[in-house]
TrEMBL record:
Alphabetical list of HAMAP family matching this protein: URO_D (MF_00218)
UniProt xrefs under PANTHER family: METHYLTETRAHYDROFOLATE:HOMOCYSTEINE METHYLTRANSFERASE RELATED, UROPORPHYRINOGEN DECARBOXYLASE
Species per Swiss-Prot/TrEMBL record: Pullulanibacillus pueri
Site (Transition state stabilizer): D77
Location in the cell: Cytoplasm
Gene: hemE
Free-text function comment from the UniProt entry: Catalyzes the decarboxylation of four acetate groups of uroporphyrinogen-III to yield coproporphyrinogen-III.
Alphabetical list of PROSITE patterns matching this protein: UROD_1 (PS00906), UROD_2 (PS00907)
Keywords attached to this entry: Cytoplasm, Decarboxylase, Lyase, Porphyrin biosynthesis
Protein name as catalogued: Uroporphyrinogen decarboxylase
Main location (coarse class): cytoplasm
């Protein structure tokens, strides 16, 4: 621990510098597909792990040690900063985040408080500091984006179509903007705190933004994302923006002050570059392929790498998170393959 020379391949790729091989990490790389995680979960609830720096650091390190990935991502959830702003949130196994007091009116929006991360979430800073002593790869901090957070806040839990969320956005544009402004401040304050504590890059998860059309994104979402990434730029650490099913938004994202765009399998890396994207790209293997025979997975990975490696500024990842049915040995083999295949 800590004795290995520091591996900065991931940070170099974020900055579009030359790298000795393609760096790789996996969204949701810590979680239930790991027997060791399931064992720890028998003892602690999700938030008990999150709130306990020793255990949280251990869970964060698990995939780095087990898979050999080039970055760690802080173990937490996009819901973590919502508790202190007054949201009654629980993570229900098999269901996902459930909100006891969903947002229905402008009074509900006004009720949300600002966060003071040092006071409200001291365990996050403590975990990050601990990890920086232990890790020999960069530590990624993260937060949810305002649209994706508001989808849980308004729907009350997971959704397939986001009718209530978008209905609120269309029906109450001023209240929607007030909600976006509040959540943007939470995201900025929370990520700035993570960076001050030692996070070396940050990813903003906008998992459900693909449900919004391009014109509506411009009108209702883009100013908020512009504000967030402008504020984060001042910290100097690389920033990553992830959305799923969001290929139609790439031309807009290209103008945001963010360093890396994380894309899914619905658009090829070379097709994204052909749109004129100059930023670094991250992605985009369909996580379902983890269940396919190795030969199939290898072929898919090769095709992605051939496109990704064609120019500097590429990080291998999945197009969405690892899921509980994935298996460790397949991810180990994939990680090794990515390194071996791309070594110069
Ligand atoms: O990547 C990592 O290893 C860091 C940990 C991480 C978690 N959630 C841990 C977690 C990260 C980066 C997240 C982000 C997150 N959480 C997102 C954005 C990424 C994505 O997948 O779109 C979203 C939408 C959430 C909301 C959320 N929290 C979901 C959909 C779930 C899964 C629900 C389920 O039961 O399948 C959670 C719970 C959660 N977050 C778990 C983990 C490991 C499972 C909790 C458990 O142990 O039961």
């Amino acid at each position: 621990m800590g004795q290995k020379p520091f591996n900065d391949t991931f940070l170099k790729a974020c900055r579009r510098e030359e790298v000795p091989y393609t760096p790789v990490w996996y969204m949701r790389q810590a979680g239930r597909y790991q027997p060791e995680y399931r064992e720890i979960r028998k003892q602690y609830s999700f938030f008990e792990i999150n709130d306990n720096p020793e255990v949280c650091a251990k869970v964060t390190r698990l995939p780095v040690e087990q898979l050999g990935v080039d970055a760690a991502i802080l173990f937490a959830d996009i819901m973590t900063p919502l508790k202190p702003i007054g949201v009654d949130v629980d993570i229900v196994p098999g269901k996902g985040p459930m909100i006891g007091n969903p947002i229905r009116t402008v009074a509900d929006v006004n009720r949300l408080r600002a966060i003071a991360p040092q006071r409200d979430l001291p365990f996050i800073g403590d975990t990050i500091q601990l990890l920086r002593e232990q890790l020999s790869v960069p530590l990624i901090g993260f937060a949810g984006a305002p649209f994706t957070l508001s989808s849980y806040l308004i729907e009350g839990g997971p959704s397939k179509d986001y009718h209530k969320t978008k209905g609120f956005m269309y029906a109450y544009p001023e209240e929607w903007q007030a909600l976006m402004d509040k959540l943007a401040d939470v995201t900025i304050d929370y990520l700035t705190y993570q960076i001050a504590s030692g996070a070396q890059a940050v990813q903003v998860f906008d998992s459900w933004i693909g449900s919004v059309g391009a014109d509506d994104y411009e009108a209702y979402i883009a100013p908020t994302m512009e504000k967030i990434f402008t504020a984060l730029k001042a910290t100097g650490v690389p920033t990553i923006y992830f959305g799923s099913g969001a290929a139609h938004l790439l031309p807009i994202w290209n103008h945001l002050p963010v360093d890396v765009l994380s894309i899914d399998w619905r658009i090829d890396i070379q097709a994204a570059r052909a749109l004129g994207i100059e930023k670094a790209l991250q992605g985009n293997l369909d996580p379902s392929t983890l269940l396919a025979p190795w030969e199939f997975l290898e072929k898919k990975a090769k095709a992605i790498l051939d496109q990704g490696m064609a120019q500097p500024g590429y990080i291998f990842n999945l197009g969405h998170g690892v899921f509980p049915e994935a298996n460790v040995s397949q991810l180990q083999r994939l990680t090794k393959f990515i390194h071996d295949y791309t070594k110069k």
